Amino acid sequence: MAKGPFTIGLVSETFLVRQGLANVLRRAKFKQVVQLGGADLSSESLQAAALRIKRLDLVFFDLHSMEHAREGLLAEEIVSFVRARWPSAKIVGLGTLLELGAHSQCLDGRIEFTRAGRDQLVEMAQAVASHGLLLTELPEPRDVTLECARWRALSPRERQVLSLLGYGSDNLKMAAELTISESSIKGHVSSLLRKFQADNRSELALIARAAGLRNGYRGPSFRRD
Fold first, then answer.
1. Are 177 and 107 found together in one domain?
2. Cβ distance 196 to 150 under 8 Å?
3. Quick one: 64 and 122 in the same domain?
4. Which residues form the domain of 71?
5. How confident is the model at residue 29 (pLDDT cuts 50, 70, 90)?
6. What's the mean pLDDT when you consider all of the chain?
7. Based on the domain organization, do 12 and 86 belong to the same domain?
8. The pLDDT of residue 215
9. pLDDT surpassing 50 at residue 221
10. Burial level of 145, CB count in 10 A (0-12/13-18/19+)?
11. Residues near 93 by Cβ (< 8 Å), separated by ≥ 6?
């Protein structure tokens, strides 16, 4: 780890969120609070941040600010960049239940926005600063844990199908894009309906959009199933 004071990074495309988080943390005596990328979460802005920020211990990532982003980096790509540049940094997602669940696998900790008050933010920062605790060891509300478990139960292919449903794709279009059969698509949709206890495809599409899924999810290579 690079030498220097304990440093917290903020990732958000919303100025007021970045400013609010910084104010809360600085009032709690965390002096080194830096911004990663600002409103422009691009490869170039992150590379620029990497040049000027030598040490990073904890990152608060505002997932909600990316909900309506249709271009640019995916949340997973931003997390991958942070982990590659600052491998010891812990990453905490801030968002709704659906957003936290959808991105749970790439996060070390999660705070639901409705609960993201001063106390919980500061508690996480103090735990990491004082003891280097894994954020997964910190308690979280049961509904957050259950939502994350539901999303982790999705296969990579189901996640792709859900993302495409969020953009209104029909079975034929999804089959062509994913190079699998329409019957396989129907099977994945049926599985998603069951796992999310949804009544129809429209509900799944709303879930995908509310979770911030974007067409372009880059999972591992797949068999033609």
1. no
2. yes
3. yes
4. 7-148
5. very high
6. 86
7. yes
8. 60
9. no
10. middle
11. 61, 63, 99, 100, 103, 104, 107, 109, 110, 111
User: Which residues are bridge partners to 35 per DSSP?
Assistant: 10
Q: What is the CATH number of the domain that holds 109?
A: 3.40.50.2300
Domain count, the chain: 2
Tokens of 145: 């844990």
Please list, in sequence order, all residues whose beta carbon lies within 8 angstroms of the beta carbon of residue 78, skipping any fewer than 6 positions away.
Answer: 11, 37, 41, 46, 61
Instruction: Dump pLDDT digits (tens) for 145-188.
Output: 999 999 999 999 999 999 999 999 999 999 999 999 999 999 99
Please name which of 99, 66, 72, 92 lies closest in space to residue 210, comparing C-alpha atoms: 99
In degrees to the nearest 10, what's the CA dihedral of 29, 30, 34, 36?
-130
Q: Quick check: 210 and 159 in contact, CB under 8 A?
A: no
Please report whether residue 216 resides in a domain.
no
- Residue 158 CA to residue 162 CA, distance in Å, equals 6
